[in-house]
């Protein structure tokens, strides 16, 4: 569960980067060949993993712009790399991040040979972000069964998404003027885990910093933008 949460937050960072860099979405822009590298840290600042995201291709399908993405994950020692490709789209002035793209491929290997169903509600971002703005909820449900017997029912709900203001943020990749977004995450499996997340987003760069807090308000992890190639 802990590893799943780490990858989930990391992918949220990458997904949000796409959301604020979509060519059809007002002043956002994402282009082929762009690379963003993120570093995940625990509460004490120790590196736990990294995620390097590359935009492989940008194409038009009807009124939508489709972004073919690749993410490469490594552990704290820069080993045990896993990769996955996924798509995001921008249409009608809104950017859609498929919650299914947030599934860790290594974790999903545990479900080989059993029945798995996934139901999700996209993470949506409008073409502009302003203080006081409320953003749509998102969710994903993963169910696994074997021989008709339920083995797992994992539900992640993202709620109370809102833009709360602006802030200047410094990370290894530089200093950026950011929009500050907060939301709640509820993870339900055998029991419920609650967390709150604060994201700092630069309109020309994307997600710069993500902080995750437990239900008591204590910092449990941070994701930082450490490299950007445009």
Task: Summarize the structure in words.
The protein is mostly beta strands and 230 residues long. The protein has one domain (2-229): YmcC-like fold, CATH 2.40.360.20. 10% of the residues lie in helices and 60% in strands. It contains 2 helices and 13 strands, in the order αβββββαββββββββ. The protein has a 13-stranded antiparallel sheet, covered by helices on one side. β12 and β13 form a beta hairpin. The longest helix has 18 residues, at 2-19. The relative contact order is 0.19.
The percentage helix is: under 10%
Count of individual helical segments: 2
- Strand count, sense and closure of the main sheet? 13 strands, antiparallel
How are helices and strands ordered from N to C?
HEEEEEHEEEEEEEE
How is the CATH topology named? YmcC-like fold
Mean pLDDT: 83
* Secondary-structure class: mainly beta
Tell me the number of structural domains: 1
CATH architecture: Beta Barrel
Shape: globular
Q: What's the CATH class, please?
A: Mainly Beta
Low-pLDDT stretches: 1-11, 13-24
Count of extended strands: 13
Radius of gyration (Å): 17 Å
Major β-sheet strand ordering: 6-8-9-10-11-12-13-1-2-3-4-5-7
User: Separation of termini?
Assistant: 34 Å
Q: How much of the residues is beta strand, in percent?
A: over 45%
Keywords:
single chain; 230 residues; mainly beta; YmcC-like fold; 13-stranded antiparallel β-sheet; 60% strand
